[in-house]
Automatic annotation (TrEMBL):
Keywords: Hydrolase, Magnesium, Metal-binding, Nucleotide metabolism, Nucleotide-binding. It comes from Bittarella massiliensis (ex Durand et al. 2017). Pfam families: Ham1p_like (PF01725). HAMAP family: Non_canon_purine_NTPase. This is dITP/XTP pyrophosphatase. Mg(2+) binds at residues 40, 69. The active site is at residue 69. The keyword Zinc does not apply.
Length: 195
């Protein structure tokens, strides 16, 4: 099965490919489909933003569209950056700028207060109006400094073990435990009911 992935984030598309390919799902990015649509995320929840993106691309193309909205929720910051994770340090902030702002916000917070979770919500919208979403979470804590060079976004500071971050473990290991990996595996199971 071929699915159109409603994102312009190449690194996110690679994760989709890696996780869904073994299930026989071919992922086509917006770029590969020749779509240059920027989608404004106006929702206040991961579910709303994921739905907005999938619906926009489905309406535009007439094809089933899949979208992910994901982010980092830090407990001591009342869930921030949350749905604003990609633009935490400003509208066009880089990953490094977002990480730097978060590290600064947690500068005086001890280890036990640095608990956090990554959240991913995957939504598919079909041209006939059917849709569903799945949600995955991964609990960890925020490191005091960057650890590792893999991944993207907040991966270098999201600790999943002593001295280990998402950016310091192999991609396959990350996929097995990550929020997106969990949401996509649930997604595949749910998708079978719709086919």
């Amino acid at each position: 099965m071929k699915l159109l992935i409603a994102t312009n984030n190449d690194k996110k598309v690679r994760e989709f490919h890696r996780i869904l390919e073994p299930y026989g799902v071919e992922c086509v990015s917006l770029k590969e489909a020749g779509i240059r649509q920027e989608i404004e995320e106006t929702g206040t929840t991961f579910e709303e933003n994921s739905r907005i993106k999938a619906q926009t691309i489905c309406d535009l193309t007439g094809l089933p569209a899949v979208a992910d909205d994901s982010g980092l929720s830090v407990d001591c910051l009342d869930g921030a950056p949350g749905v604003y994770s990609a633009r935490y340090a400003g509208e066009n902030a880089t990953d490094d700028e977002n990480v730097d702002k978060l590290l600064a916000a947690l500068q005086d917070v001890p280890d036990e207060g640095r608990t956090a979770r990554f959240v991913s919500v995957i939504t598919i919208v079909f041209p006939d109006g059917r849709s569903f979403h799945t949600r995955g979470e991964c609990v960890g804590k925020i490191a005091h400094q960057r650890i590792g060079y893999n991944g993207f976004g907040y991966d270098p500071i999201f600790q999943v073990g002593e001295g280990r971050s998402f950016a310091s473990i192999p991609p396959e290991e990350k996929d097995a435990m990550s929020h997106r990996g969990k949401a996509l595996r649930l997604f595949v199971e749910e998708l079978k009911k719709y086919l």
